[in-house]
Amino acid sequence: MRAVWRASRAAVKRRRVQTFVIGLVVLCSTTTVLLALALLSVTSGPFEKAFEGQRGAHAVVSFDPARTTDDRLARTAGQPGVAAAAGPFGQAVVAVPRDWLWMPGGSLTVVGRPDPGGPVDRLELLEGRWATAPGEIVVNWPGRGSPGPGLLGSSLEVPGAGTLRVVGFANSVSRSASAWVTPAQVAALHPSAAQMLYRFTDASTEDRLGERLETATRELPRDAATGVQTYFALERAFSAMADSYLPFMTLFGVLGLLVSVLIVGNVVSGAVVSGFRHIGVLKALGFTPNQVVAVYLTMLAVPAAAGSVLGTVAGNLLTGPVLKVAFTGIETGRAMTGEVEAWVSVVCLLGVPALVVLAALVPALRAHRLPAARAISAGGAPRTGRGRRVQRLLAGTRLPRSVSMGLGQPFARPGRSLLTLAAIVLGVTTVTLATGLTGTMLAFDGAGRPGAGPTVQVSAGGPGVRPLGDEELERRLGELPGAEAVRARALSQAGLVGQSQPVFADFYRGDDSVYEDEIARGRAPRAAGEVVAGPSFLRQRGLEVGSRVTLELDGRRLPATVVGMLVEGNARALEATWGTRDLLAPDLRATEYAVRLAPGSDPRAYAEAVEALDPGLEVRVLGGANAGTGTVVAFSSVFTVLLTAVASLGVFNTVLLNTRERRRDLGTMKSIGMTPRQVVVMTVTSVAGLGTAGGLLGIPLGIAAHRLVVDHVGVVAFTGLMKDVWHAPQLAGLLLAGVAIAVLGALLPARAAARTTIAAALHTE
Question: Would you say 409 and 686 are in contact if contact means Cβ atoms under 8 Å apart?
């Protein structure tokens, strides 16, 4: 083994360029693989980790206390199929004013619990402490991180029940309530329901969960349960903000894995094949076949190990910020941080070098069987006859000789050329997919803001008495110079009967033309009792266009029909007409106005006119991409750069090996008059043809992948205009992407070959 190590170390030092290329390819590939695996990991099961960590409830059920008793509810915990249960807890609904703890106002579901622990739904205390005395309340904080201690001590006046002081903020992965108080305090709030939390022995499917819940409550009156929130609804809601782009991340991750594996296999196997002459020399010196294989495996494992270590470090540094952006909308308190799991780094540290060794093993075993003389002869240029027929056909054309010779070179090494072509195809596929997704998301972001002029948002929700009333302010805003249409918005927190978590209800009055581009399915709301919502809102609540729901606000209930699905919408908000507001909350005022300006209008001048109308109004110009659009564009850019770099390195390696194998041929051609410029043209042309073929194959694959994502994988309601983002000039540019990847990788070795002198090229070992 000492001789093997000395020979391997000498080969690493002598082949510095090859060692550097292998290390660089492994570094970039490891970074890409780590980012891809991290994305696949966090997008496949983040909810389960947070749910199990807090012993989340498979079902949160509200019961009518007039139809059953606490004793009968407690006995349901012992029914077959129930693994654990908590409750019954008193559940009340209290009204909160606008801007209390930055809430929009409306209803708050309050549950009485003695402590945050228990066998089911263990709450995570983010700030402060648990409520232990009357007059204390702990508020649910669904966002990531914590609210900070500054909000502790806030008070809430409850008519008939006194003042509640905020002593803590907690998070429930089960979303079992909006706030918690002591059991004695909830009794003073006159609870309207009793809450039970269940975990079942088998809740693997919605049907089985339903069967277990039915078994647990079979001794209760059939109409005792007034609302059920299941584990599956929570799972759908978990990453609702990221649902529109997590499928894109997954697809980029798969592409990253494929390109990295192909490039590593191409580079490593090519390095072994190019070293056949060296293998023959080692055999002639007395190395056994097994020692020769060990020399080459060790020689390639050294840069592979260094590249995998550096790539793992770089991947972790890159992946952390990327995942934080991706999971901005996760609602789990501190349960989900977006950190890379340890197994991902371990797989990269061990798996990528193992891939290098495996890729080297196949050609090394071939060399293992070759006699020394044949190995030495195999290490030269490709065997006579390979690609000669294609070369003769190209020589008969009117193409310049350097071009025809370059186009015929890939046929001399068909296996290596096919691997390089596959890498270019996947690189072009990635660029095409990234371009399409960027166009789709930009069109998606512009939905509801069609071509017209800019939109200005005026907020009147701050403290103080306004000199103008609600409707008067709307009229005056529409009369200011540049205004085309005004849309008033009133926001309140409401309840959906049968669900424990509140929703945001947006009531609109005025300009409804925006719905022309916002409705993906169905129609816009026109009458009282008609609502629309985004795809995430409908999906996580099991609703669709035509579904019936019951809204509850300030003690009033109103049956409503979902008449349309928005292209985009808040995962916790629905939209309704002003007539719906009249029936549910007639005292609710509009606090926000969206003013659409005429084309060419100056939004800054309009904002100044609004401030002159009422200095207390807040004005801002709407625009810019939303979080989902920014994330998709960022991911497209990161993976496009990474995969283009990796594919170009694969081309670089192919051209470098080809020029070294044809070193004597290049010297001979130079000696009979080939100029350095012709050498560059011939070398670049040898892969430009592969680049063109890669573009022709990669473009339709990228378009097909784009359509697959937007049609079948994502949950965003993309319209036709958001899918048809391809145009002839754009496709022509994408075709050049394959050529650009090939030329970018070939340029450096081509220039190096052109600068090689005739004497150096004809020099033999």
Answer: yes
CA distance 192 to 194: 7
> What digits encode the pLDDT tens for the residues 327-369?
544 444 444 445 567 788 888 888 888 887 887 777 777 766 7
CA distance 542 to 529: 19
724, two tokens: 């048809």
Structure tokens at 752: 């190096």
579, two tokens: 């007539």
Of the candidates 133, 117, 137, 108, the one whose C-alpha atom is nearest the C-alpha of residue 184 is 133
CA angle 278, 282, 287 (to 5 degrees): 150
17: tokens are 């360029």
Assess contact for 670 and 394: CB atoms under 8 A.
no
HEC string for 67-92? CCCHHHHHHHHHCCCEEEEEEEEEEE
Residues for the chain: how many in total?
765
Tokens 């008495």 found at: 465
What is the rounded CA–CA span in Å between residue 99 and residue 468?
21
- Kindly report the average pLDDT of the chain as a whole number: 76
Question: Which among 352, 262, 336, 334 is positioned nearest to 35, based on CA atoms?
Answer: 352
Comparing CA positions, the residue from 269, 229, 483 lying closest to residue 356 is 269
Under DSSP, the state recorded for 464 is: S
Rounded to whole angstroms, the Cα distance separating 765 from 757 reads 16
- CB neighbours of residue 428 within 10 Å: 31
DSSP H or E segment with residue 32: helix 16-44
Residue matched to tokens 């106002």: 105
CA–CA distance, 47 with 578 (Å, rounded to integer): 37
584: three-class secondary structure by DSSP: helix
What is the CB neighbour count within 10 angstroms for residue 605?
13
Other beta carbons less than 10 A from residue 267's beta carbon: 31
CA distance 408 to 393: 9
What span, in angstroms and rounded, lies between the C-alpha atoms of 233 and 575?
A: 21
Whether residue 698 contacts residue 419, with contact meaning beta carbons closer than 8 Å, is answered with no
What is each CA distance from 368 to 84, 101, 225, in whole angstroms?
63, 73, 74
Dist. CA 596–CA 613, nearest whole Å: 18
Q: What is the pTM of this model?
A: 0.55
- Cβ within 8 Å of residue 554, ≥6 positions away: 95, 106, 107, 584, 585
Q: Give the pLDDT score at 148.
A: 57
What phi, psi does 411 have (nearest 5°)?
A: -80, -10
528-586 pLDDT tens trace = 999 998 877 887 777 888 899 888 887 788 999 999 888 766 667 888 999 998 898 88
SS (H, E, C) 489-500: EEEEEEEECCCC
Cis peptide bond prior to 749, omega within 30° of 0: no
| Main-chain dihedrals φ then ψ at residue 625, nearest 5 degrees | -80, 150
What whole-number distance in Å separates Cα of residue 433 and Cα of residue 473? 47
Whole-number Cα distances in Å, 572 to 419, 460, 541? 48, 23, 10
